[in-house]
Amino acid sequence: MANESRPCPCDIGDRFDYGGRGQEVQVEHIKAYVCKPSSSTDKAVIVIHDIFGWQLPNTRYIADMLTTNGYIAICPDFFVGQEAWKPSNDWGTFNEWLKTRNASKIDKEVDVVLKYLRDQCGAKKIGVIGFCWGGAAVQHLMLKNPHLKTGVSVYGVIRHFDDKSNLLHPTFFIFGEKDDVIPLEQVTSLEQKLKQNCKVDYEVKIYPGQTHGFVHRKREDINPQDKPYIEEGRKDMINWLNKYI
C-alpha cells in the first residue's frame, strides 16, 4: 500500500492514453521500443526512460515525436527486465528499489544499443535524451561515452549525477522552477560547476512555474496554464538535437 504522506517523488502525473507508432524488438539481452521515420536517415536518438520504465506511453510518445522530426528513436529497457516503479508502490521501499537500478551503470546496455543502431539501422550520428532517472543517465553518458554526439537531460535528478562537470559533448539541461525533487540551489550549483569546468557547449534552462515531469508527464489539454512551457521544452529539446546531430 502506498504511503500517501510521502508519495513517490516522481509522481506519475498524466498517463497518456497512447499506443505508439513503433515496434518492440529484442536487442541482444535488452528489449526496446523502436520507431523509424518514413524516409531513411543516419540520425538517431536513444531515449532513456524515467523510473516508470520503457513501456510508459508518455515516453513512447516522445520517441515518436522525435521520429516525426526525422530521427530513428529507440527506448531500451535500461532496467533489463527488472520491474519499473509503480505509483502504488510504498515510498518507504523506494531507496532499496533504486539501489538495483543505478543510472550510472548502463554502459554495457548503451554499447549494445549503439551497435544495433549502427549495424541494423544505419545510424552514424547518435544523441541521447533522458527524463528524471534517465536525465541523470544522460549526464553520466555525456561525461564518458565518446560515441554520442550530444545529450538532453530533462529534469535529471542532480543528486544521482557523478560529481563531475567536464562534459565531452554539448548538453542541454531542462529543469522546472517548482520541481520538488530538484531544488533550485542544486541547479545553481550545477551551473557554477559547468561554468568552471566545461569546455563544450551547454545550456541550463529553468522553465517558470513548472514541476517535475512537465515535458512528458503533463497533458497540455488538461494543464492549459502549463501548455506553453510543455511545448517550449519539447521544441527546445528538438532544436538542440537538430543543432548537434
UniProtKB/TrEMBL annotation:
- Its predominant location is cytoplasm
Q: Where in the cell is it found?
A: Cytoplasm, Cytosol
The UniProt gene name for this protein comes to Cmbl_0
Q: Any idea where the Dienelactone hydrolase domain is?
A: 30-244
Q: Does the keyword Ribonucleoprotein apply?
A: no
Q: What is this protein called?
A: Carboxymethylenebutenolidase homolog
Record SUPFAM superfamilies: alpha/beta-Hydrolases
Q: Which keywords fit this entry according to its UniProt record?
A: Cytoplasm
Q: Which Pfam families match?
A: DLH
GO MF terms held by the record: hydrolase activity
Membrane-spanning segments: none
In its UniProt entry, the species of origin is given as Cephalopterus ornatus
List the GO terms this entry assigns under cellular component, sorted alphabetically.
cytosol
Tell me which family the UniProt entry assigns to this protein: Belongs to the dienelactone hydrolase family.
Q: Does the keyword Metal-binding apply?
A: no
